[in-house]
Amino acid sequence: MAAQHSPMEQFEIKPIIPLHIGGLDISFTNSALYMVIAIALVTYVMVYSVRGRPLIPGRLQSIAEIIYEFVGEMLESVCGKEGRRYFPFIFTLFMFILACNLLGMLPYSFTVTSHIIITVTMALVVFVGVTAIGFARHGVKFLSIFAPAGVPLWIMPLLVPIEIFSYFVRPVSLSLRLFANMMAGHTMLKVIAGFVIALGAWVGWAPLAFVVVLTGFEIVVAVLQAYIFAILSCVYLNDALHVGH
After folding, report:
1. Model pTM greater than 0.85?
2. 217-243, pLDDT tens digit by residue?
3. Into how many domains does the chain fold?
4. Is 147 exposed, middle or buried (0-12, 13-18, 19+ CB in 10 A)?
5. Count of CB atoms situated within 10 Å of the CB of 74
6. Structural domain of residue 9, as residue ranges?
7. How far apart are CA 125 and CA 122, in angstroms?
8. Which of 13, 19, 20, 62 is nearest to 35 (CA)?
């Protein structure tokens, strides 16, 4: 019985449509389902909101335009006008993470970004993509990112290994930040919600009030983590675009 109320149960990946090819498990899971839902919701909001393009924008169109302008300004402020060509990727990344985070706040839902395999995959896509852009634009000169200009030569033997290490740690820190925040917050919500039931109607109001406050805080964290992931991706992209600047 205790296992049913385990705060970690909400993170369990369960197959919805079992499918095995040879020894490979490619089942359609609850995680895959919520990723599909997130993509469908984002597509619906962005496509439906601009359909017809009324003179006076509706609520949905206003929200879509605000998000669009917000991401565009964020990208341009970090990367300059050169970064605008990468807007579709950054916008898609931000909207996908935001949708997954907010979907995870619904009761009995599944939080895709609470799994390290998902956040690591997104972080590696950013890392590999940014590195490829750096070499495509600058060639071997891109390696100068590990040797900042103006640094005395005698410090280089110490500084270069640190710069290399910090560069390759980027996908780790990027993925762990999102994963840890989402998992910790949802675990805490589940634990405190358990106290509401255990303490009953007379005393349970105290943890219930805390759950309400914590839920509001978690919604803010869900939005903030999507923003942090996106803006750090912009920072890494800026490094690739402007080596030595």
Report:
1. yes
2. 999 999 999 999 999 999 999 999 987
3. 1
4. middle
5. 19
6. 2-241
7. 5
8. 13
